[in-house]
Amino acid sequence: MIEKPELASKCDKWEEFNTVDWSRLLSEQPQFADKCDKWEKFDDIDWRRLIVQQPQFLEKAKEYAAGWVALLMKNPELAPECDKWEEFYTWDWSCLLSKQPQFADKCDKWEKFYIGVWSWSPLLIEQPQFADKCDKWDEFLVSDWESLIEQQPQFLEKAKEYAAGWVALLMKNPELASECGKWKEFYTSGWSCLLSKQPQFADKCDKWEKFDTWDWSCLLSEQPQFADKCDKWEKFDDIDWRRLIVQQPQFLEKSKEYAAGWLALLKKNLGLASECDKWEEFNTENWSWLLSKQPQFADKCDKWEKFDTWDWSRLLSEQPQFADKFDKWEEFDVLNWEPLIRRQPQFVNNCPDTIYDEFSPADWKIFEYIIPESIKERYVK
Hints:
By secondary structure, this protein is mostly helical. Helix content is 44%, strand content 0%.
């Protein structure tokens, strides 16, 4: 409707619009504002997008904390009008203070700031003077230290107080290795990150046996020469194998030794099916995922009777033609039914009345145009 607003009368999905949909639409077609029911869910980015394009929504923005964050980031002179300070979340404060640090005395959420992209890291990148208020240094991840040091190198010495900080430093500055006294404190994820960039430190690693499949797939995707140290091949799932094979196709043959490896291969390469000798080793989750993408392998599945409700909900949401193999509708709970009805509304009549009672008001907003009138009359809340 951004391009063809005249089609509005035919739209039956207004309730399904998210805040990004609404801010984009109203930025171009503000006349639909009376149909929006997501104002309270707009974040500061949604408000900024909207106000820049349609400044008539400035007064509307003042009704919400996120709206005020958007306004004050660009127009700090409006501060005396703001009555939403206490409603700002830590993310709101991080965004606002990154651009307008003069409002620090109004912030009452310092102790609730957390690590990562949502609070401390982005704030200190923009406003390093707030470092004395940070009490989460020991929780910073390698990625937090990487971005912080890159933008604010004065924190290099601070980084040396923490294992994750040293990983970030050594990834970029291996010549600092002689100063590091935190080697034994590195977690496996830290070792995986470091060795992916600086494999020469392998002899210092004492955590090989503790690496999980994520650590291994990330490391081997960058440094395949460490494959002989890996003792977790049988625990790799199809996601681990896909990541590895895409980056290092020489592991394709290795993947064929395991059922999860074959799952990763067959989801993308049907032509390899004739080589697969692991069909009997596939568990029900493997089959559910594979048949969701490649239903033509159904005749090879010998685990139908062992599928649990999650396996069935996942499969039927993608491939409803397998419903004739399913006879356990009564075992589905509301968490199984909700995604299934959303994706495949033809199953609505299989859903028992007791489940309809459990759907939330939010579910019903989504179902409003899916569920038949005869059922809506009884259950729409």
